[in-house]
Amino acid sequence: MKIAFHGAARTVTGSKHLITLKNNNQILLDCGLFQGMGHVTGQLNDYFGFDAKKVTYLILSHAHIDHCGLLPKLVADGFDGKIFCTAATMDLGRILMMDSAKIQMQDADFSNRHLREGEEMEEALYTDEDVTKTLSLMKIVAYEEDFKIDENIRLKFTDAGHVLGSAAVHLTINEDGKSTRITFSGDVGRYGDLLLKSPQQFDQADYILMESTYGDSLHKDLDPIEDMLLEIIENTCINKKGKVIIPAFAVGRTQELLYALNDLELKGKLPDVPYYVDSPLSSKATEILKSHPEVYNNGVKEILKVDHDIFGFKGLRFIESVEESKGLNQDPRPCVIISASGMADAGRVKHHIRNNIGNTKNTILMVGYCEPNSLGGQLIAGKKVVEIFRDKHDVKAEIQSIKSMSAHGDYEDLLEFLSCQDPALVKQLFLVHGEYDVQQNFATRLKAHGFKHVAIPEYHQEFEI
C-alpha cells in the first residue's frame, strides 16, 4: 500500500492525500482548493498530480473549501466514484461549492473585463453543472457508524469539533490477510470551542495523518474575544467614525462572530451601529447551523434557553444582492461589515478592502489563519502596499487581528486529540496541513511525547506503508 501527499504538504491549503492499494484501488482523502498561494495558486489548482479517472473512492473530512473545493474539477476530469461524508458536510458542501463556482466565474469575468495588453483570458476551474454532478455522487455516513465501503475497506467518522459536520476519518484496510488502520485527523477543533462540542476520542491507529496548522502556537483564552471586538468597534466606529471590515470564513468564523456580538447585546454592551453580513453564503451557512442544534456545546444550549436566536441581534442585516453590497462602500456612515473570504483573497470582502484600505478612520480586522501570501496574510505581516485586482493600494487603514479566534486547535489541543493513542503502536505519523517551520517544531514536540516516527511529507511525495 502507498500513500502520496498532493496538497496540504508543508502548507495549509489544498488538502489531498491519495492511498493506493495493491489491487490498484485508490482512496482520496479530501480534494481541496489551494488558496492564497500567490501567483502559483492557479497552477497548483490546475494539476492534481494523479489521474482523476483512476480514483476509486473519495472520503471528505469536512466542507471547508481547502478540503472540498476541487471536488467538482475532479469530477469534471473523470472521477465517478462515491464521495463519503457526514450529512452536515453534504449540506455545507453544496452551498460552498456552488458559491465557489460562482465566485470563480465572477472573478474571471471581472479580470477579463479589465485585461491589460499581453494578459491572457482567465477561466473558472469548474461550473455549477460540475457541482451538481459532484453532489449526485455523495453518500452520507453517520458519526461512529462502522461503514463497509467494500470487501476490503471499512470507514468510521468521529466528530473533529472543527466546523459543523467535520470528521476525523478512520479506515481499516485489509490486504493479503493483514489489517491496517489509518486515521486522517481532518482539521481538529478546539477543546472548549465557543459553539461546538470537543473532538471525540478514537480507536488505536497504525498510521496517522495529522493536521498541524497551529503546531507551535498556544491560543489565548477565548473569553476576551468579546472584549477585543468591543474595543475595536468602539474605537473605529464610535471614536473615529470609520468602518470595521472583517474578512471571515462563511462557515464557522462568521457564526462565531455573530454569537459573540449577540452575547454583547445580551449584556447591554453592543455599540449602536449597523452590522452587515455581506455574504449570501454566510447567510445560508448560518441557517444550516441553526438547523443542527445537536452540535452545540452545553454552554450554548444554556444560552438557547433564554435566547432562541443566538446569531441575531439589533442592527444586524444580511446583505444579498450585489447592488446592496456595492452600496455599503458608497455609504460613509460607520458600520461593521463581515464578509467572505477569510483570507481576503476572493469574494465581496476583497472589494470592501479595496474601497476602505486607504482611509485611516477604518479598521481591517483579521480573525483567523491566513496563508502568508494571501491578501490577509500580507496585511497581518504589516505590508504597507498591497495588490488588489492588479492595482497597488497604500495600506492606511488600521490592521488588527484576533488570533485566538481559530477553529483549529493549538498544539495542546492537537496533543489532546492524540492522547487516546499509544505512541508505541503508531508506525508512522505524517504531519500535513501546516507551514514547514511550524511542522518541524511540532514534530519535535510529538517525539517528546513518544511518537518516534514522524514524517513531514513534501508536495507529491509518496510513501510505502
UniProtKB/TrEMBL annotation:
Metallo-beta-lactamase domain location: 13-240
Domain Beta-Casp, residue spans: 254-379
UniProt xrefs under CDD domains: TTHA0252-CPSF-like_MBL-fold
Plastid found in the keyword field: no
Keywords, in A-Z order: Hydrolase
Gene3D superfamilies: 3.40.50.10890, Ribonuclease Z/Hydroxyacylglutathione hydrolase-like
Highest rank taxon of the organism: Bacteria
SUPFAM superfamilies on file: Metallo-hydrolase/oxidoreductase (SSF56281)
InterPro entries listed in its UniProt record: Beta_Casp, MBL, Metallo-B-lactamas, RibonucZ/Hydroxyglut_hydro, RMMBL
GO molecular function, one term: RNA endonuclease activity
Descriptive protein name: MBL fold metallo-hydrolase
Source species of the chain: Pedobacter petrophilus
Lineage: Bacteria, Pseudomonadati, Bacteroidota, Sphingobacteriia, Sphingobacteriales
